[in-house]
Fold MAP1A protein.
Amino acid sequence: MPEDELSRSSHSNPGKGLVNGIKTNPASNSPKSSLSVPMGPPVYVDLAYIPNHCSGKNTDPEFFKRVRASYYVVSGNDAANGEPSRAVLDALLEGKSQWGENLQVTLIPTHDTEVTREWYQQTHEKQQELNIMVLASSSTVVMQDESFPACKIEF
């Protein structure tokens, strides 16, 4: 495809060929396997919303290696569609284990699901080792002098 056609096609469908915001090879059937962007420095943020309702379709350990947040919001309450995904929660552990620094991370689930409860119980020791705290659905969050239930954080 000539360069001007490639340019037009990317403008007509922004986001196509992107995985976690990274340009991928559009000819590949598996975008995750064809990441061509060299590893850059990680991005540090206060709060990150795990993409796609914590679905395993778009979030992998690479996301957690690159996007280092003090707080991750885990949405999703649709077990039939794999939301939240156990694989994504495990990817958080894998990604965080490669940070090289033991910064405190707080995971904020917006729903109390069987997947998050089982993951919490089965990986509790690893969470403690990695300095990851999971808020219970009955927890409260204080932001800008306002207090509200943690499960109300939804975007």
About this structure: Residues 43-149 form one domain. Strands lie at 18-19, 22-23, 43-49, 67-74, 105-109, 132-134, 140-143, 146-149. The radius of gyration is 17 Å.
